[in-house]
Amino acid sequence: MHIGQVATMSGVSAKTIRHYESIGLIEAADRSAGNYRSYRPDDVHRLRFIRRARNLGFPIDRIRDLLRLWSDRDRSSADVKAIALAHAAELDHKIADLRAMAATLHRLADACEGNDRPHCPIIESLAGDDGAPGP
Amino acid sequence: MHIGQVATMSGVSAKTIRHYESIGLIEAADRSAGNYRSYRPDDVHRLRFIRRARNLGFPIDRIRDLLRLWSDRDRSSADVKAIALAHAAELDHKIADLRAMAATLHRLADACEGNDRPHCPIIESLAGDDGAPGP
DNA sequence: CCTTGACCTTCCAACAGTGGGAAGGTCCAC
DNA sequence: GTGGACCTTCCCACTGTTGGAAGGTCAAGG
C-alpha cells in the first residue's frame, strides 16, 4: 500500500504519517522501486492506535510509551493505567483552568450592558480599574 | 524605566515584552543612550492589561482588538462584549472536548484492573479490539 | 511515444507564545 | 577599573500539524 491509501484507511493524513516517521513514532516504511513508501496492513492498525490516542489528547511522547506497552506481551496493566490516569489528571487540570477563565468571562459579560456606549466592565477589569483581582 | 523593572511591575517577562514589541502588540520603546529600551509608567499599565487578557486565555490577535477598544473613547461596549462572548464560547467548546476525553479516560481506567497482568481495556480500546467507537 | 493527471518524494516555513541560551555591550557601585 | 547586574540581538526549542514549492513516478488514453 502507498501512503495515501494508508492515510485514508487509518484516518491519519499522509503528511502526518511522514511526520510520525520523521520523529520516530513509527518505523521508516520500506520503499518501492520508485522510492514510494510501502505499507502493510499492520501499519494501518498502528496508525489507528495512534489516532485514537491523539483523539484522547495524549501527547506524542505518551503515545510512544503506550505503543511500547501495546507491543509488550509482558506489560502490567498497572503501567497503562498509570499513564491514562496521569493524562486524565492533566486534562482535569486544564479543564479547571479553562472553566475558571470561562466563568470570569461570563461574569464580566453579564455585567456589561453591551450597548453603543463606551462604559464596559470587561475593559475596566482588564485595565485593572475596578476590583478585578490580579493573579 | 528599563525592561527588567517593567517586567517585574507588569508581571510580563522581559523576554515576552520584547516579543510583544516584535510582533507589534506594543509600540517599539524609546531607546536610551546605551540602546536600552526605556519605558513610561503607562507602558506598565498596558502590559498589565495584556497579561490579564492572556490570563483569561485571549489569543494575541483578540488582545490587539481589545487594546484598540480600550483606547477608543468612542467604543461601543457591545463590541467588547461580543469579543468576550466569542472567546467564552471557544473556551466552552474546548472544555467540552476535554471533558469528553477525560470522561472516556476515566471510564477506561475504571475498567482496567491495574495489576501486573497484561490484560488492559485501555490498550484494547486504543487498538480497536473491543467496542470502542472510532470517531 | 507522449501527454495528462493523480500520486508520490523531499525540504522549508508557518502557526501561538513563550523559554533558553550564546555572544556581546552598558551601567553603577566600590 | 573591575565585578556583577543588567541590557542588546539572534537563533533555536517546544507541540503537532499543515501548506506549499519543486520535482519524480505511475497508469491510462490518444
SSE blueprint and pairings:
The structure is a homodimer of 135-residue chains.
Chain A (H helix, E strand, L loop, with lengths): L2 H8 L3 H9 L7 E2 L5 E2 L2 H15 L4 H11 L6 H35 L9 H7 L8
Antiparallel strand pairs in A: 1-2
Helix pairs in contact in A: 1-3
Chain A binds a DNA duplex (30 and 30 nucleotides) through helix 2.
Word description of this protein:
The structure is a homodimer of 135-residue chains. With 135 residues, chain A is mostly helical. Chain A has a domain at 1-56: Multidrug-efflux Transporter Regulator, Chain: A, Domain 2, CATH 1.10.1660. Chain A has helices spanning 3-10, 14-22, 41-55, 60-70, 77-111, 121-127, and strands spanning 30-31, 37-38. Chain A has a two-stranded antiparallel ribbon. In chain A, helix 1 (3-10) crosses helix 3 (41-55). Mean pLDDT of chain A is 93; it is low at 130-135. At the A-B interface, helix 3, helix 4, helix 5 and helix 6 of A face helix 3, helix 4, helix 5 and helix 6 of B. The structure holds a DNA duplex (30 and 30 nucleotides). Chains A, B: This is Cu(I)-responsive transcriptional regulator. Chains A, B: One of its GO terms (biological process) is positive regulation of DNA-templated transcription. Chains A, B: Residues 1-69 form the HTH merR-type domain.
